[in-house]
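Table S7 (text form). Paired inputs.
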Amino acid sequence: MLEKRDFYINGKWVAPAKPNDFAVIDPSTEEQCAVISLGDQADTDAAVAAASAAFDSWSQTPLEDRIALVEKLADVYDARKEEMAQAMSLEMGAPIDMSRNNQVGAGTWHMRGFLKALKDFSFEEDYTPTEKTLREPIGVCALITPWNWPMNQIVLKVVPAIAAGCTVVLKPSEVAPLSGHLFAEFMDEAGFPAGVFNLVNGDGAGVGTQLSSHPDVDMVSFTGSTRAGIAISKAAADTLKRVSLELGGKGANIIFEDADEKAVKRGAIHCFQNSGQSCNAPTRMLVHKSRYDAAVETAADVANNTRVAPASEEGRHIGPVVSEVQYNKIQGLIEKGMQEARLVAGGLGRPDGLNRGYYVKPTVFADVTNDMTIAREEIFGPVLSIIPFETEEEAIQIANDTPYGLTNYVQTQDTEKRRRVARRLRSGMVETNGQGFAMGSPFGGYKQSGNGREGGVFGIEEFLEVKAVSGWAAE
């Protein structure tokens, strides 16, 4: 069993101020695979103090030197990517091939995107011949990350923050902390100055709240549930710090009558990817009535042919969900769906042959209406709800009738319709016809899906303040 109790503070691995062991569970087996310690106020204070002490020097470090260290980090990350893949597969249940390609690859992708954006990023601009506009690092940043895409979210926060000149305290999810611990090793090996990057493990009620309310923290960047995002915002309010949130989603995937023949299959596969544990998953499939029956059949076929297996096995399957808490929540919502709608694939319990581990059957509900629980709540499991519609206007109304607004999807061969509908969907992202987003594209949502943007130039700007300086040059 792995023992990872230490925190990374001020350039050193240090023991927690007060032992508070927490078991890390392998979701494929339900067995303990590691132990960490949850931090206390003294640990949080020490990490914030280290970041505060390092800020002045780091914020004045030339940009080219900061970029050089990020490039070194990228090299270390690449050299040790197999370790990272194994850590994420063990802690949160991503199948090892998916962990190598997608989970690890997300970190590589975003690091490259930030390095590309930094090459041309303007930290100073002439507003008038005598006035200068400066973009300066906001200060000490608390970065609170989730368990579902560990490296995606850690890289999306740590790299732009430190590249902008901020210093940081990272609190990864206590449910999946091994990847964060390994990332701290990468930062140390890359040679960042002491105090620039710090890591303290803890839960939301403890270290999460302590960071959010800390008077010496200038900004909190959080990815996770909407419920937790609200709690963080309230905790941060007394100190008026900036809060950047990337929260939940309930994406609508609109399948028009002229959608390509693979649209339904593509949407169902996307919904089940990562065992449904993605905030941008297209979990509501809105299908034109002319294609509805065929779509239900296709989606059910995808679910029935999606293999579920342990994360340690190679191959193109989905693994378990992350924890017993998540498993029980998903089972409860599937049970609710069986009372509300028509079950056409999957259902309650584990898939056949899997008697231990947090495995969920890929599940499809048909004849769903948008007022049902399964259409309103973010299930965060491999569960798809199919809703029929008749007109473009009705589809837009259904898609927008949600508290969330992260990612919506549009499938049609009519270019004008695709653009018209995309403009009217109330979400931070609209993916059309299966076309993925470019490197550095802004990731974030509307409404209760949050208020921040991550990735590329947009992600760097999140960690900057804007300063106007008059009389920069003589008149």
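Next pair, protein 2 of 2.
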Amino acid sequence: MTTVPVYAAALCLGTAVWLHAGHSRGARRGRLLFPGGACATVPATARRRPIGKPWSRLGPEWLCLPAAAALALLGGSPLPLPAGAAAVPLVRRRLRARARAKERDRRTDGVIALCAAVAGELRAGCQPAQALFSAARSTGELGEQEAAVLAAARFGGDVPDALRRAADADGAEGLAGLAACWQVAVDGGAGLAAGLDRLEAALRDQREQRERLRAELSGAWATVVLLALLPVAALAMGAALGAQPLRVLLHTPAGWACLLLGGALEAVGLWWARRIVEAGEEP
């Protein structure tokens, strides 16, 4: 039992040393970059963001470590500490996947707004290249290929090819439709504004269909989360009844076997349920 506070204290001490070392490196880097107090000349927009605070760069996944330390203290065993450390990359991967999905949705909405903006500029009397240039500058939804697309639109380059390269980004597939409309308008003389209106309507319908599908699958996701939390609720109920489930799981061979088997079944069940729900989300 006395080894648990030692593990927790070592973990807290190592975290504090790492944060202090990162802060010292950030301050030293600032002194090297801006000697003699030159950092006062940094613009106000750049000074709004704090610099040299490594804890501001830590994601929510690092909360697994203090949670594991608290569980180790409650159970009187160091076993939760490596489990918490192993959970950090898994949680980080899940959070990054969710962030990528949000960025994909945001980029899709931006492409729809870009099509609407280009069509509006064309109806206002602008030429296609000028309309694309103005709309792209106002919406900023061309991603990393924005400079290439703007250069092609401004200096008479291959705009459809630049748009197709920009459509390779996740969520920007609608730019390929914009490139096709542009190609047809240039080669065949068709109205670009009318084609962009139809493209915008199609992209909006696709987005609304995806949102309806997500709303229908929200119940399935809620069921998955509830099933995942049932073992935690069972442990809490056992502790409330005085059965000491943590002591049994963390200090007896039978508890270790149950913990290993239950964790494996929990992981397989979550993986399988996630595959089923994600298969339903595919168009």
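Confidence is low (pLDDT under 50) at residues 1-6, 16-55.
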